[in-house]
Request: fold
Amino acid sequence: MRPRFSAEVFTATFCVAYVSALAANLPLFLYYPQERVFSWSWAPLSGVGPGMAWYGLMAVAFPVSALVAAVAPTDGLPLRVREWLWILPACAMIGCLYLMSHFFLP
Amino acid sequence: MTIALLILHGLIAVALLGAITHQAASVVRTARARPASTTRRTFLTRYSRVSDRSFTAAVAVLFVLSVALGGTIYPAYRIDVRIPFEEMGLAWAVGLFEVKEHWGAVGLGVVPLYLKTWRSEDFARRQTPRMALTLLLAIIVWTDFLVGHLLNNIRGLG
Reply:
């Protein structure tokens, strides 16, 4: 039996999950490359160098969207809706730009 | 090792840039298609006159490979490049890299739907989602490539 997977649901859920986790600053874990330490706490550790959230954000967005895409019916969305799903990644890109805007403002 | 991976990352990015730009030019040309007799034979028409569908698998594989390699060398950037940027007060450079990494992640999430719009019969007669997703990926690839190149010029790894 072929496993079910809805590409539409995966992309839509991934965009929402990733930007939500980024906006709420809720990666699954933080990675500290200097000491090669993973931390499950959202609070930054001290004495281990700078932390990275990107892996933790991906670790939130990927399993969530894969699970939802496997559970959701593949033909559940009408074609009219599927035709406009590209707006979600476009909004996610604008959202990321907005969330990073503090780097560019004086 | 990091330098070798960075060069490989750059080479894959160049191949991806070529493939997605060809496909984007072709899909836009198809959307604005005029009768063949009225089309002038310019460099642009020849550049975009490729089988757009044939680039799909290459774009998907190269995009995933590029992000995976970028993710592998990311810790080296965080230690050896970002800290000096912060010390030099180049917040905009740090911000550009942040946009690059987040857009790369969004692009990774887009790949399955992009593949489906090019391969599924459901989307065969619908040009808008196919064109929109291809152009979105092209914007991500071009932005990420230029930002990576710029930041490497300011301060590379090693």
